[in-house]
Amino acid sequence: MKPTFNSRKRETHERIVDVAAHAIRSRGYAGVSVAEVMKKAGFTHGGFYAHFESRDALLVEALDCASRDIAAEAARVTRLRAGTGASEFRCLVEAYLADQYLGALENGCPIAALAAEMPRQSRAVREASIAKVHQLVAAVRSALPESRRAMASVITGALVGTLQLARALGDNPKGREVLSTARESLIQLFDMPEPAH
């Protein structure tokens, strides 16, 4: 059965967004060129406006796609660890601060990749960015034991900052040590069973 025009258009759209999602994480918002994204996706620059009203519209969708990627990775780690006694919080920390994100800037959390740029974006991109920050804090909050949920924004800041700092050091023993120390510390400090009543 041949794909319909609408399904081909949707696949094209998704391909462009996926390429842009990797680009914003590896080069930042400012480093995303419509022409480069379209070329890498395998399409002509002229086809861009059949899919997006503006570059900002693409950036908003790319941010959403990148956020889904890291959420899916955390869910995958949780599934893999099911039955081992690992808590949702431990799985989230291990997925977020995985060594694989040191050298792969195009993957991982878009907030860690873009936080410093977010306040300088257009209103639409800034609002989408703020929404993703709130979603990350909410995901951390829901993974924490109830008695520690008030610390969600502090822990989120620790996750984001740790990944940024480790990436600044590089994909080497020093960068991996920063990630490892943070993983161990966050789990030790915040992944404790609720006290019995």
Automatic annotation (TrEMBL):
Residues in HTH tetR-type domain copies: 10-70
> Which segments of the protein form a coiled coil according to its record?
none
Q: Which residues bind DNA?
A: 33-52
Q: Give the species.
A: Ralstonia psammae
Q: Does the keyword Transcription apply?
A: yes
Stated name of the protein: HTH tetR-type domain-containing protein
Q: Which UniProt keywords apply?
A: DNA-binding, Transcription, Transcription regulation
Indicate the secretion signal residues: none
Q: Name one Pfam family in it.
A: TetR_N
